[in-house]
Design brief:
By secondary structure, the protein is α+β, with helices and mostly antiparallel strands. The chain is about 35% helix and about 35% strand. It has one domain. The strands form two sheets. It has a six-stranded antiparallel beta sheet. Strands 1-2-7 form a three-stranded antiparallel beta sheet. Strand 1 (about 35-45) and strand 2 (about 50-55) form a beta hairpin. The protein is elongated and about 55 Å long.
């Protein structure tokens, strides 16, 4: 009896291993080009340093498929302003983080975008979500008062489409609620070990990319938006 159970378990594990290996091989051989991030313009607007940028490939087919199954995802943009220093390490001067949580609403058959400001109206398709979140015009980095007119700077931009986990969902929900304590609900209420299995089988993983602007001085960007 014990032998038959052991053989059954071994057969199950072997089939599972072969399935995962085939999935990994297929993803490597037939994967689409990776994500891309482009910083199109760094300029001054009303006393603030702003960046216009666009992203491609963050909503990969496997992420879109997993979102359609009801598992949310979090898209984070971190915009950093660095000060170049010749005889020392470059200095991080400003940083701004944009966080968007995407979830599918099966009752409305559409997607919601959640930010700290609140929840957007239902959008009808994932293409609308991608266009809304992957093109940013004049995203604020910070105030120009933090910059030295005689120094050289550059912008580093990082975008991450983060896989879900119970901890990630709790942290994002807390951030969206401004730290108001509430109990776990929805997907985050699933026991940890079951949640790990669901995420693992879903194929959801990081889509991350970074980009760096050319070096500039304040005099090269100040008043650029008004001059056009």
């Amino acid at each position: 009896m014990k032998t038959s159970r052991f053989l059954g378990l071994a057969l199950f594990l072997l089939v599972l291993f072969l399935f995962l290996a085939l999935s990994l091989f297929s993803s490597i051989c037939f994967s689409a080009p990776g994500p891309a991030l482009t910083i199109e313009k760094v300029e001054e607007n009303s006393g603030f340093l702003t960046v216009t940028f666009s992203a491609e490939g963050l909503f990969s087919p496997r992420i879109v498929e997993t979102l359609g199954r009801g598992l949310p995802a979090t898209l984070t943009y971190q915009i950093q302003l660095w000060k170049s220093r010749r005889l020392w390490m470059d200095k991080l001067t400003l940083v701004n983080t944009l966080v968007y949580r995407i979830r599918y609403d099966p009752w409305e058959d559409g997607y919601k975008i959640e930010t700290r400001r609140g929840t957007s109206p239902i959008v009808l398709d994932i293409e609308h979500v991608e266009r809304s979140l992957c093109v940013h015009a004049k995203a604020i980095v910070g105030s120009l008062t933090a910059m030295d007119p005689t120094s050289t700077y550059y912008v580093v931009l990082r975008a991450v489409m983060r896989p879900v986990s119970p901890e990630d969902i709790d942290q994002v929900e807390s951030w969206l609620r401004d730290g108001k304590p509430e109990g776990r609900r929805g997907v985050s209420a699933v026991p940890g070990y079951l949640f790990d299995v669901i995420v693992g089988l879903s194929g959801l993983g990081d889509e991350a990319i970074s980009a760096k602007s050319t070096a500039f001085r304040m005099s090269e960007i100040a008043g650029a938006s008004e001059s056009r």
